[in-house]
Amino acid sequence: MFARTALRVASRPANLSRTLRAGYATAATSDPNHFSASAVEAMNPRGVEISKAQQIAENGFISAIGNTPLIRLKKLSDETGCTILGKAEFQNPGGSVKDRAAYYVVKDAEERGLLKPGGTVVEGTAGNTGIGLAHVCRSKGYKLVIFMPNTQSQGKIDLLRLLGAEVYPVPAVAYDNPENYNHQATRYAEARENCVWTNQFDNIANRQAHIETTGPEIWAQTNGQLDAFTCASGTAGTIAGCTRYLKTVSEGRVKCYVADPPGSVIYGYVASHGKNLGERQGSSITEGIGQGRITENLRPDVELLDGALKVEDAKSIEMVYRCLDEEGLYLGASSCLNVAAARDLAVMLGPGKTVVTILCDGAYRYADRLFSKKWLHEKGLWEAVPERLRGYAVLE
Questions:
Q1: Most buried pick, 4, 54, 70, 339, via CB within 10 A?
Q2: Cα angle vertex 299, ends 285, 174, to 5°?
Q3: What is the pLDDT of residues 286-296, one digit of tens each?
Q4: Which residue range or ranges hold the Tryptophan synthase beta chain-like PALP domain (predicted)?
Q5: 99 dihedral zone (left: phi>0; alpha: psi -120 to 50; beta)
Q6: Residue 162 — left, alpha, or beta (φ > 0 → left; ψ -120 to 50 → alpha)?
Q7: Strand 83-88 vs strand 70-72: parallel, antiparallel, or unpaired?
């Protein structure tokens, strides 16, 4: 008897108003006269409203992709006098923004008759696209084959294999070398029936995913009241697709800037208005972003960009720790490069503006580096971590 009474007391929310308390009584009782579902619903009207709109993901994994929230980054918004919003792509079911591209490149292959039931999907990837494809392929019954540089961590290889992919780590060589992992993926697919190379860098179905989903979601969530958008370019699907949609729907009003890490040619190309592509020099600790060429996903929309923002690794690392401490967001380095770019863009545009960026994924796949004192020292980035936040670097 005592245990049941204790349960009832512990289960009753302490902050209910008198009116709601009367309707709620105790959720632990089985007596319907002591429980009001409408009163409980009233405690979370926003959540109930969103749940009703989303309904059930009838087609399993693929229909759970997208419709991610926009999160106001409070500290940075207050600092800049702007509203800085991050689209929480880490809430996609596969954990990253690449779920969108993965679904669209597979869907495109199906619609064009290149992929039939029981077929095989092939991709050259070292990161989140492979993970997204692994989930999509399992949900649709396809086999997945991944080629990746053998410089990638064993953890990535293990994760892809855990998700059912057949993984081939191959020597890391430049794109113009026939043994580059992308070219090996192409040859593998061409030599087999009912087998398709999804070609994430130059398959514009990637870009289309963001024209049809990410861009419209951002526009709807802000009621069209955004002034600027920025994110980095890897395959360029996200920056190109969102730029195309937001520029079109706003009749050019929304400013769009590509964010670029060290070692990438995109910043120089955009800053020179397409006159100077240059060559890759240096490198970055960020993964999956930065590029040495203009991909077919970016090419149709590069002239729509209003400019480019260079973000050094030190800024990205600083933001990894700031987002964790100040916002409670556990984000990867590419996400935090985007956040740093959004902050710089907000400062450039001035107070009162609304700037949106992409929170690509969480830090879970990168924790052994981003929160390792040894790794940060090796990369010369320990000083980039604010002194007051160095306690978060708990790994040796």
A1: 339
A2: 45
A3: 888 888 889 99
A4: 64-361
A5: alpha
A6: alpha
A7: antiparallel
Could you say which of 74, 87, 98, 275 is catalytic?
98
Predicted TM-score (pTM) of the model is 0.89
CA distance linking residue 133 with residue 144, whole number of Å: 7
37: pLDDT strictly greater than 90:
no
Cβ(274)–Cβ(283) under 8 Å?
no
pLDDT of residue 27: 52
The tokens of 370 are what? Answer: 């981003």
Q: Report residue 253 as tokens.
A: 């009003």
| pLDDT the model gives residue 54 | 74
Quick one: tokens of 317? Answer: 């690392």
Longest dimension (CA), the chain: 80
Measured CA to CA in angstroms, residue 314 lies from 49, 56, 77, 187, 335 at distances of: 41, 42, 21, 39, 14
Q: Is residue 334 predicted with pLDDT exceeding 70? A: yes
Same CATH topology for 61-91+205-392 and 97-197? yes
By the 10 Å C-beta count (0-12 exposed, 13-18 middle, 19+ buried), 14 is classed as exposed
Residue 98 is a catalytic residue = yes
Mean pLDDT of the chain: 89
- Rounded to 5°, the CA angle 213-217-220 comes to 140
* Fold (topology level) of 97-197: Rossmann fold (3.40.50)
Domain ranges of the chain: 61-91+205-392, 97-197
Q: What DSSP assignment string belongs to 325-367?
A: III---B-HHHHHHHHHHHHHHHHH-TT-EEEEEE-BBSTTTH
- Quote the CA–CA distance of 378 and 368 in Å, as a whole number: 13
Q: Domain 61-91+205-392 has what CATH class? A: alpha beta
Residue of 265, 282, 267, 204 lying closest to 230 (CA atoms)? 267
Residue 211 is classified by DSSP as I
